[in-house]
From TrEMBL:
One of its GO terms (molecular function) is tRNA (guanosine(34)-2'-O)-methyltransferase activity. Methylates the 2'-O-ribose of nucleotides at positions 32 and 34 of the tRNA anticodon loop of substrate tRNAs. S-adenosyl-L-methionine binds at G53, W55, D76, D92, D117. GO terms for biological process: cytoplasmic translation; tRNA nucleoside ribose methylation. Its main location: cytoplasm. HAMAP family: RNA_methyltr_E, RNA_methyltr_E_TRM7. Its EC number is 2.1.1.205. Pfam families: FtsJ. PANTHER family: RIBOSOMAL RNA METHYLTRANSFERASE (PTHR10920), TRNA (CYTIDINE(32)_GUANOSINE(34)-2'-O)-METHYLTRANSFERASE-RELATED (PTHR10920:SF12). This is Putative tRNA (cytidine(32)/guanosine(34)-2'-O)-methyltransferase. The lineage of its organism: Eukaryota, Metazoa, Ecdysozoa, Nematoda, Chromadorea. Residues 21-200 form the Ribosomal RNA methyltransferase FtsJ domain. Residues 317-350 are annotated as: Disordered.
Length: 350
């Protein structure tokens, strides 16, 4: 895989391309499922923020192996390329209408599991990114409370932070067990992890709503380090390391082996399986290729320079005008001029 040995993409990216997964995140869900068996016996599943569809691919593969009548609904604002056996909804997860459509596809029944691998566009400001991710999880939980059956499970990506315990405490109110899972395929240097909530058991009298959209500090009462039921690393610890760059040069990997043509094909470059069908940045990329951004930047720079010149000329003109006014005032107030005027007036009187 890869064009040269200097390809810095990690092993899971290359394995995803080789095995036709749409993204490396497919391995994260598989490793969590291998550890907790959360997809075992599932007949109805919902994938939130599903694009480009790697988690939906895993659902399709694992659910239909056990039950051919299983149903999977994938939701995202972006359109996705079709996946066999997956019903796709292009909609907003914060809308009650979207929740109603999910239940309609399940013939009035509710889901056994809801998963969400969504994340906001990161800014690089960690505190802001962590907060936005927590808000996204709460939005995912809101729709989950509409479509998840009692006893069902919920899995969502989280950015670990000092306020994570508050989120765990909120989830603990609605689920009997809450775990924090870190798959082997998730880079250890990343604050990314996955909150796994098992056995949905909402408080008595709880009414699902889309209105819970912010972390509430009152929910933090009594929060301790033991609020979660465990931190679990998932995946074979002796397997591929997501932090390591494995060489692609066949001579480096197998210096003394006699390889046939089939072995050599393992290192052929492969294109991505399925790029986004209509990405949000598509128009921007097309504009960039056409050079319109360069022209806009040049025009803007030219206009700014012209504006600065106009401002400089205006400042000079105002300064000259002020200087002229000061000179005129000095002439009016000059005592020599006043004496000359008085003498001239006296001569006229005589």
């Amino acid at each position: 895989m890869g064009k040269t040995s200097r390809d810095k993409r990690d092993i899971y990216y290359r394995l995803a391309k080789e095995n036709k997964w749409r993204a490396r995140s497919a391995f994260k869900l598989m490793q969590i499922d291998d550890e907790f068996q959360i997809l075992k016996g599932v007949r109805r599943a919902v994938d939130l923020c599903a694009a480009p569809g790697s988690w939906s691919q895993v659902l399709s593969k694992r659910l239909y192996e056990e039950d051919k009548d299983a149903k999977i609904v994938a939701i995202d604002l972006q359109p996705m390329a079709p996946i066999p056996g997956v019903i796709q909804l292009q909609g907003d997860i914060t809308s009650v209408d979207t929740a109603n459509q999910v239940i309609e596809h399940f013939s009035g029944e509710k889901s056994d599991i809801v998963i969400c691998d969504g994340a906001p566009d990161v800014t690089g400001i960690h505190s802001l990114d962590e907060f936005m991710q927590a808000e996204l999880i709460l939005a995912a939980f809101n729709i989950t409370s509409h479509v998840l059956k009692i006893g069902g499970n919920f899995l969502a990506k989280i950015f670990r932070s000092r306020n994570s315990s508050l989120l765990y405490a909120q989830m603990k109110k609605y689920f009997k067990k809450v775990y924090l899972a870190k798959p082997r395929s998730s880079r250890q240097s990343s604050c990314e992890a996955f909150v796994l909530c098992l056995d949905y058991s909402p408080p008595e009298g709880f009414v699902p709503t889309m209105g819970k959209s912010s972390l509430e500090m009152t929910d933090a009462s009594g929060v301790t380090a033991e609020v979660i039921d465990g931190f679990v690393t998932c995946g074979d610890l002796s397997g591929w390391d997501s932090e390591k760059s494995y060489p692609l040069d066949i001579d480096v990997c197998f210096p003394s082996a006699n390889l046939d043509e089939e072995d050599k094909k393992r290192y052929e470059f492969k294109d991505v399986v399925q790029p986004p069908t209509d990405p949000a940045y598509k128009e921007a990329l097309e504009m960039k290729k056409s050079g319109i951004f360069s022209k806009m930047n040049a025009d803007m720079t030219k206009e700014l320079k012209a504006q600065h010149k106009r401002e400089d000329k205006l400042k000079i003109a105002r300064a000259q005008e002020a200087e002229s006014e000061k000179t005129a005032e000095k002439k009016e107030d000059s005592p020599v001029d006043k004496v000359a005027e008085e003498l001239k007036a006296a001569k006229i009187e005589q």
